[in-house]
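Purpose: get a first structural picture of the assembly so the mutagenesis plan has something to point at.
Setup: two entries, given in the order below. No constraints added.
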Amino acid sequence: MQKIGLIPLALPFLLAATGAPAAPPSLTEVPAGRAAPESGVAALREAALKDDIAMDIVEGLTTEVGPRPAATAQEAKAREWAVAKLKSLGFSNVHIEPYSMPAWVRGEETASLISPFPQKLAITALGNSGATGKKGLQAEVVYFPTIADLQAVPDGSLKGKIAFVSHAMKPTQDGSSYGEYGTARFAGPGIAARKGAAAIVIKSIGTDHHRVPHTGVTDFPKGVTPIPAAALSVPDAEQLERVFSRGQPVTLSLLLTPRFNGTQQSGNVIAEVPGSDPSAGIIMVTGHLDSWDLGTGAIDDASGVAIITAAAKRVMDAGTPRRTIRVMLAGAEEVGGFGGDAYYEAHKNELHVLTSESDFGADRIWRVDFKFPAEAKPVSDRIAAALAPLGIGAGKQPAGGGADNEKFVKAGIGTIDLQQDGTRYFDLHHTADDTIDKIDPEQLRQNVAAWTTMLTIAANARENLKEK
Amino acid sequence: MQKIGLIPLALPFLLAATGAPAAPPSLTEVPAGRAAPESGVAALREAALKDDIAMDIVEGLTTEVGPRPAATAQEAKAREWAVAKLKSLGFSNVHIEPYSMPAWVRGEETASLISPFPQKLAITALGNSGATGKKGLQAEVVYFPTIADLQAVPDGSLKGKIAFVSHAMKPTQDGSSYGEYGTARFAGPGIAARKGAAAIVIKSIGTDHHRVPHTGVTDFPKGVTPIPAAALSVPDAEQLERVFSRGQPVTLSLLLTPRFNGTQQSGNVIAEVPGSDPSAGIIMVTGHLDSWDLGTGAIDDASGVAIITAAAKRVMDAGTPRRTIRVMLAGAEEVGGFGGDAYYEAHKNELHVLTSESDFGADRIWRVDFKFPAEAKPVSDRIAAALAPLGIGAGKQPAGGGADNEKFVKAGIGTIDLQQDGTRYFDLHHTADDTIDKIDPEQLRQNVAAWTTMLTIAANARENLKEK
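Result (structure tokens, whole complex):
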């Protein structure tokens, strides 16, 4: 929206590109005779702290489309919505890239403790779960405090039983507890099936205490027939633990009727800010359009879609960048990264020089990680310096990307991770509670400011961003 | 559990009872030749800050019984559970006092926005709601930002429409916002029915932002046929407001199949700490055993049941008090105070000198209010002084009691309100989220300490506690 000229910014980049890597410019030291290298960036960054584009996108997508599960009519509606929005914002080359995939759809889902203390429990099926049949399933429950306890019992030993797997996940700023405790969801159902279990219920992979269970995809290994697999809300799982503490046999009734709805269409939405120098390569930024069906996918990932779109729009409005910025709004991330894979297959031979993903909510960015060629070190230094006023420190480990750019990361393409604060993320992740009211507008704006800063520098840098 | 003799406590009470009201004793000034009047109380109070009886009761009732809606088998199970618990704690005269009442039971409940933006909404029927029939109801929605806006339209003008009533309730420490904004629930359905509406949905009378709608009873005036009446969760109601902001016609599909299940049995559970002086009258303390069906009724009102029981147990274990303390665990509070009314009718001719209710969660007590005869002023002064170390100030308005002692309050019986902090109460009230994990054990113990303090002084006071 604001038009801020890039001329004072471009000059030092040109000078720096002439030979040996330039010393990283500082925000305070300005060499005599040169314009302050980051002065244009600073103005864009400060303007982005007043951004209203991102919240408008989140509001529109979550209100006018709402839940948008992969390979459904709602996800198709999200693509149409996004195309219209991106065109109205002035992006170029806005289009849908469709692909086909198997569609898993939720059915009925209820659970009741039958004995010793009859009461209803809040439950939701995991993505790819098998079904109980319409009459449901009633069986004795075997309690495993951790996934390791489930792994320890012999194959076939749980015949006719429902496995209940708990865990002790706590919030972490970097989200690292998800990998550790998430195993109960990612792999637990497959393990329980191998042990002969009739079904599995897990404590939701979440850190909240609300009666809103967390769904999410699970993977059954090849050759293992899917069993009904579901997550109890954290309070319900704790209730079941208390029930088990009485030492009496525990029986659960479970009704889960999800199904695979054949092969359906999904797709990615692409938009571009065309760069002035096609030989400088493409910067691909991504978030995902699909969401789980329980909430409206505000933090997962309407906010990512909104942040990258708002930032790209701000860079576009500031003048033509050197590199093309390609906004890739992925489909079907939640159920296995189908959109990211389809994009990679279709575009891997184009000159991508940098990718970055926003898919960890809407809370503030606290750290930036890079995976860059050595010769691009001045660029990462300039980016880190320009992010510092936003309270963002530079990390020491290499950027790892996310589900929708991981194949580029593995292929050695430069990557930047603008790490969001994940302390609250797993309170809401994959639940009915993932709604717009959970977004703090100020933190969302800080994200837009960080992305605007990063993209401005990366898209205009004269340095090479790719190993030769 | 601790045995703390009451002799040093009783002596000044005896002296104080001889004629003119004594000056309120202070915790610091001890008249020469007398034991410190509150020294026994102070020790009981401090011991109660380490209480584990109350949490044990909440844990047992919410785990082993769980939800206990009025006039259901679950509520009957709660009575049996309470009788066993009260007997095991050593109370006297433990028994059930049954009564009959109409039983309203929840059925299926779903809601979907049909147009302009199809999506599911989280909804729950209000107590006494009518039903849509098994095929549900689909109709245009008319939005009323406040209950006053609904009241303003002509009778009959909403024929065939669904009324949607919102509000702007915010948390208050004293819970006073419930009365103001709660009108949308208490009276809204009756008003909507008069206006001709086919159904009504309201924004939950709650202050949280979770997808857990708040139920609660509504009253249809005599002669008004009940219509389907339900509450959307706060995020869902806000979503509907955003949808209305687009200016397009809004259609909702509603399925609500609650019904009245005829006349069923409910009952109160009574237990006593017998006093040494029957002429000194009864102190009746009350909380309610029933709960809404959506959660396990941990804060509403297992905690009240637990607090008064734990405090009475502590007073009992300290020695026989002068007055009988009667613990009255009411049935059917949620649906209209049937238990409190039945108790009043059965016992109104007994000499009650003081009643007090705990039914506002488990957070700390911050204020004490009294409604006492003038001659008992020294007693209220001593209670206020002994509560001060717990961070409890004395209020200036008279105590008003609650649903289960209100007829005694109206009849002029002395009343003490130990006011709990209600700031979080309406985040959880009448929702699936009312579970034990929401209770802060330290604040629950402060409640027990305050009640133990109040009961010790009131049950042993030599002053008359009733107008003559």
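Chain A has two domains: 7-103+263-460, 107-257.
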